[in-house]
Amino acid sequence: MSPVPFGARLRAAMDARGPLCVGIDPHASLLADWGLSDDVAGLEAFSRTVVEALADRVAVLKPQSAFFERFGSRGIAVLEETVAAAREAGALVLMDAKRGDIGSTMAAYAATYLDPASPLFSDAVTVSPYLGFGSLAPAVDLARENGCGLFALALTSNPEGQEVQHAVRADGRTVAATVLGHLKAANADAASRGELGSYGAVVGATLGDLSSYDLATGGPLLAPGIGAQGATPADLPRVFGDAVRNVVPSVSRGVLRHGPDVAALRAAALGCADEVRTAVDEVRTPVERQGL
Ligand SMILES: O=C(O)c1cc(=O)[nH]c(=O)n1[C@@H]1O[C@H](COP(=O)(O)O)[C@@H](O)[C@H]1O
């Protein structure tokens, strides 16, 4: 039997738990604020607390691999435990690794995150299309095979991204629009079935008006930048327009700063998910609001 596609699983999770992704970003400064040591023991305590607080109630958890990798193999071991525990508790895990390389190497990255036999197997992974979208083909294929998803960097939340992503090609399209076009093609099958696609774009919530871009890729739009980078849930309709229905807002420090108290972490995440729901409801028609 073929696995349920990631897009369908994500839609179900967002409907059930609210449209929110919380990042697990164990910054050294957060470890200190939580009274934890800046070492593997601190990393482990931090990650376990976030999973305990949120994995059974938010739609998506997004461990940021860099903060685990900085502790070497023992940090990766904590990452493995974190992914497994979060999935076990019912969250979808989006590994934030932003991988990208030539196709033959990309196949190994794809196997790392999207092969069920891998200790880092996740529901989805962030990828960089800046070696050419076609170089991601092994990840696109493996994701399809295993019911996983990808989130390709299209319009990132950081201002430096513009020099690459807004660059205009010889045919007049921007680089970012080209990435969005590839994702739309990859999601076409799911769209023809009326389902959310499994191939997402990363589009920063910090970017202001994006009406010059076709964000209707048929897939999810991961929107980092809420909280510490200055965007708020109320900004989402203005930034994403009608595409806001497919937005998965992502917040890391804005929620994590409420730890280590489990109840406070939960309250922060659920409060944020409620704010997102309210903002998204603004652009829904009355018929959609009644679920008709
Ligand atoms: O792919 C991402 O998640 C990502 C893309 C992007 O454009 N901007 C961005 O901030 N991120 C990640 O989202 C998280 C943002 O963290 P906060 O600023 O603390 O909410 C970090 O882990 C970033 O690496």
Describe this structure in words.
With 292 residues, this protein is α/β, with parallel strands linked by helices. It has one domain (6-282): Aldolase class I (TIM Barrel). The protein contains 14 helices and 8 strands. An 8-stranded parallel β-barrel has the order 1-2-3-4-5-6-7-8, surrounded by 6 helices. It is globular. The two termini are 30 Å apart.
List keywords for this structure.
292 residues, alpha/beta, TIM Barrel, eight-stranded parallel β-barrel, binds orotidine-5'-monophosphate
| Helix-strand makeup class | alpha/beta
CATH architecture: Alpha-Beta Barrel
- Provide the gyration radius in Å: 18 Å
Beta-strand residue percentage: 5-15%
Low-confidence stretches are none
Question: Short description, anyone?
Answer:
The protein is 45% helix and 14% strand.
Detail the topology: elements first, then pairings.
Elements: H1 6-17, E1 21-24, H2 28-33, H3 40-54, E2 60-63, H4 65-69, H5 72-88, E3 92-99, H6 103-114, E4 124-127, H7 137-146, E5 149-155, H8 162-165, H9 175-186, H10 188-192, E6 199-203, E7 221-224, H11 236-240, E8 247-251, H12 253-256, H13 262-282, H14 286-289
Parallel strand pairs: 1-2, 1-8, 2-3, 3-4, 4-5, 5-6, 6-7, 7-8
Orotidine-5'-monophosphate binds next to strand 8 and helix 12.
